[in-house]
Amino acid sequence: MLKIVWSFFFLSAFAGAFYRSLGGDWVVWNELTAALFSSAKSAFLIAINLTGVLCLWLGLLKIAEQSGMTDALARLLKPLFARIMPDVSANSPAVGSMVMNIAANILGLDNAATPAGLKAMEQLQADNPHKDTASDAQIMFMVLNSSSVTLIPMTILMYRSELGSENPAAVFVPILLATSVSTLVGFLSVALVQKINLFNRVVLGWLFAAVVAVIAVAWGFLRLPDKDRALVSTVFGNMVLFSVVAFFILWGLWKKKDVYELFVEGAKEGFKIAVTIIPYLVAMLTAIAVFRASGMFDWLLGGLEKLLLALGVDTAFVPALPTALMKPLSGSGSRALMIETMQTYGVDSFSGFVASVVQGSTETTFYVLAVYFGAVKINKTRSALPCALLADLAGIATAIVVSYCFYGK
């Protein structure tokens, strides 16, 4: 599936550039070539910048793994994972890594989430009988990761605050609802494809607990004064992050492990993974860059706007659509478009509100697929991409709907 999408981006870019050149716009070829090489360089720099973070967190995860912490987490969640990922061996350390990844995503701690996720994919690969094809467990984990619920969208709140919003945290509940729907649709779509029994008591129990947790966090957050929400969420996230680091080390010392040597051993694995993902990042980011530079992205947006007008749909949200369309393709690109929308129409305008909620509704699907599957050299992703894109669509659609419900209230 990825190779089809990758080829589509490049061929569409060529077709778009050729069409523009027929109209006398020969500069498009310069823009296309510039985008190709700049995005290749950008992909390499992303991987290099990721190296330090990977070394840090995989070093800490090695301490957690060797000191028995991940085994303890695996035992706690074994009943759930045995039902939603039955092909994962009972003693696999991947369960602990997946839990850490999902927990970091929930708290909006991207720097901690990615290394844990890459480690989990590597551990899941050990149970995968077909090394070039994604297993059911890897697909489920990837889709949950790419649509993961973010309880505290720290980055978006900070951007809104810096741009002068009167109430930066007004988007908190809409984002929580949108990303929850995205995750639920992603999970249900994979469960349907893999024929997982959703009416099992254990699965229903965990789903109920997750819903209660989301409601509790939303309730607690809304009780805070408006001016304190962004500060509290930022401080809480950073406090949790450093507390986890200290806890890993203390746990290792309590278990009488050589935490320094274990950290160095894990950090070496982080460097190897960073090198492995470079070709996959270059492939995907260059395809996305030329697709946008060719004008095809703008034509797609214009076509959607005309379709909505023809159907008589209110188009007040249309200025936020660039963020929605870019989100599955590029995290930095969608973030830039969100900021651009808020600067152009006003941070507290309806368009700025929708753009913020859309930005927090889903993850960057193509980036996640390229990095996670690239790290374990999987090129046959099966149902992963369709299910992840369906989750994206659900999250973005919900973001638009709840924005109409919440804006100005």
Number of helices: 17
What is the C-alpha radius of gyration, as a whole number of Å?
22 Å
Distance between the termini: 42 Å
Helix share, percent: over 70%
Largest sheet: none
Would you kindly provide a written description of the structure presented here, covering whatever features stand out?
The protein is an all-alpha fold and 409 residues long. 78% of the residues lie in helices and 0% in strands. The longest helix is centred in the N-terminal third of the chain and has 40 residues, at 27-66. The chain is globular, with a radius of gyration of 22 Å. The protein starts with a helix and ends with a helix.
Task: Describe the secondary-structure layout.
Elements (H helix, E strand, L loop, with lengths): L1 H21 L4 H40 L2 H16 L9 H13 L3 H16 L10 H11 L7 H9 L9 H23 L6 H22 L3 H29 L4 H35 L2 H15 L10 H6 L4 H15 L4 H12 L3 H11 L8 H23 L3
Helix pairs in contact: 1-2, 1-11, 2-5, 2-10, 2-11, 3-4, 4-5, 5-6, 5-16, 6-8, 6-17, 7-10, 8-9, 8-15, 8-17, 11-16, 14-15, 15-17
Keywords:
17 helices, 409 residues, mainly alpha
Question: In a nutshell, what does this entry contain?
Answer:
It is built from 17 helices and no strands. The chain has helices spanning 2-22, 27-66, 69-84, 94-106, 110-125, 136-146, 154-162, 172-194, 201-222, 226-254, 259-293, 296-310, 321-326, 331-345, 350-361, 365-375, 384-406.
